[in-house]
Amino acid sequence: QDHIRQMQTDILEKLIPHDSSGNVENLGDLNVTSNLGKMTEYYFMQGGKMLRPTVSLLMASACNSSTNRRILKESQASCQKSPQSSNLSVCKNQYKIGMISEMIHTASLVHDDVIDEANTRRGSASVNAVWGNKMSVLVGDFILARTTQILCSTKNPQVISVMAGIIEDLVLGEFMQMATPPKNTTPNQKMTAYIEKTHRKTASLFANSCRSVAILADETNASLQNLAYDYGRNLGIAFQLVDDLLDIIATENEMGKPTSIDLKLGLATAPVLFATQQFPELAELVARKFKNSGDIEKATEIVANSNGIKMTRKLIAQYSEAAEKAASSLPNRNEATERLIELAISQSDRKF
Ligand code: FPP
Ligand code: MG
Ligand code: MG
């Protein structure tokens, strides 16, 4: 928690450094005339969950515990010990991975809100609703540019490559989501494509951030790196499945944001895909992306009467359990490992 609080301040300072008179460095007049600074910090100031850095730092600490040998050798300056729990320590570069994970996530949300034509995010006006699409796209790019600077400062080519892969996956995931599958695609193929899309869109960020902190813990330990990756991938898929489920079953009041967004965007997620296997007439609505009047209500009703919700919960449980298994297999379990396990288990009954 201490690391995470400090990280929120550090991210803002890396994004838009201020000089001693409070002016935004390097941007000068450009900031005054274009609101670049305000736009850049906008989503970071709204108090996101900081889930990605939390997972990255916990995984860093869990991996470091299995490789004490290396951590002990590191200079005090490159390691940060959490004041309250002396067992949990992360290195400077691992801390940077936490920052980078949140920054890539936020940049992707800025672009996502432009693509989805969203008016709100976290209960406030979206960045594009306030400043328009054109500047929002550029601000997303600006956040990515500053993120790249931090990534390069790790001076670890393997980590730079793994983290750059996340950005590629985000773009490919978004493309997969927009693609219309060929007419003869089977239900099984649709489900496989949905999971692949979910990996790229959401899980890759968790998986590759976890892999990166594991590389930084022990460059030579491929099995540790793979366990960290597996944990992140399975947690990430479970997390997105829960999001997709809540979008269909939760009320706007519970979520604090509009629901059925996916149907409105023409997207068929796990509950709909399962329901289509049971009620093939739903396929027609999916194919026309719920465009006809009454389609969204009809699809919601069919899903509610189907086993789609139950099957999605079962799938969430499978991915949570796979994440739990990966974390449990990490050598030298410590407090952070236990927290990772709890986080995986808690996905099954997450309500928001
Ligand atoms: C939120 O999903 C969006 C994502 C998880 C990824 C979006 C990725 C891009 C727009 C590609 C470009 C990425 C970068 C880094 C420049 P959602 O729309 O399902 O969820 P929401 O309810 O949070 O909007
Ligand atoms: Mg969106
Ligand atoms: Mg989207």
From TrEMBL:
InterPro entries: Isoprenoid_synthase_dom_sf, Polyprenyl_synt, Polyprenyl_synt_CS
GO biological process annotation, one example: pheromone biosynthetic process
Cofactors, names only: Mg(2+)
Keyword Transport part of the UniProt annotation: no
Sorted UniProt keywords: Isoprene biosynthesis, Magnesium, Metal-binding, Transferase
Top-level taxonomic group: Eukaryota
GO molecular function: metal ion binding; prenyltransferase activity
Pfam families membership: polyprenyl_synt (PF00348)
Example of a GO cellular component annotation carried by this entry: mitochondrion
Recorded family membership: Belongs to the FPP/GGPP synthase family.
PANTHER family named in the record: ALL TRANS-POLYPRENYL-DIPHOSPHATE SYNTHASE PDSS1 (PTHR12001:SF69), GERANYLGERANYL PYROPHOSPHATE SYNTHASE (PTHR12001)
Full protein name: Uncharacterized protein
Taxonomic path: Eukaryota, Metazoa, Ecdysozoa, Nematoda, Chromadorea
